[in-house]
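Ticket reopened. Same input as before:
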Amino acid sequence: MMRITRRYRFCASHRLNAAALTAAGNRELYGKCNNPHGHGHNYVLEVAVAGPINAQTGQILSLASLDGMIRARVLDSLDHKNLNEQVPAFAGGVPTTENLAGVIRRMIAAAWPTVFPDSPAALAGVRLLETKNNFFEIRS
Amino acid sequence: MFITRRVEFSASHVCSRPELSAGENAAIYGPAANPHGHGHNYVLEVTLEGEPDPETGMVFDLKRLKDILNREVVEPMDHRFLNYEVPPFDRLVPTPENIAGEIWRRLRPQFPLEGPRLSNIRLYETDDLFVDYSGVEGSQ
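Engineering reply: fixed in the latest deploy. New output:
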């Protein structure tokens, strides 16, 4: 088994505010991330895929297909968007980067069977950097 | 304990297969199929696992590791056109997966069982694309 990791970028704004908490409670919990006007990040998304090398192509899977899928199914929905207002998965939810990583993981998993129906390659993990100093990873 | 040494080499390649049409190769390999070739600054990270020697305090002599990496990887591949000058890429598509596999095959015999274990290699083709390989399970 070999693993290939591809890095993508998108920019989005968000505000961390939990509906169940008071205004003061949200300010205390989320700090600057609770700013009512929101703020944004240059997110970096790393998508890791594991599998055997296809003897004919020399690839684990088609990078062109992976790029196309991530563009269409993930980046187009998130890039230059307000996560709270424009991404349905966060209607009523809090777009922490933990939650965003989970949303992205589900977006990829939903698209996978149609884009790579017969491939032995599998999604091995998603790592999402909110800034260069903090990142969140789901290994699967 | 794990120790990692990083080396760089620059090389050109073409990712295409002679039995396919130009259109088919472009569909699989994208711009990497350009028949004139193109190049990358590859970055290779080699990780060894072992215990520090009680006398030297080292897992492995890093100078020796650097010499091995230079001899087995950098000298044969640096400033070369992989398809034309570095076997087996005269018959194997020099995708990052296949280059990582070939580097593993070259390095594996350099670390016999009694010494530190070759744990992982990571090959960056660009900042945004890298391959990890730890050998075939059970072959160590």
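The interface with chain B takes residues 1-8, 53, 56-60, 62-64, 67 of chain A (CB under 8 Å). Chain A is about 35% helix and 30% strand. Please confirm and we'll close it.
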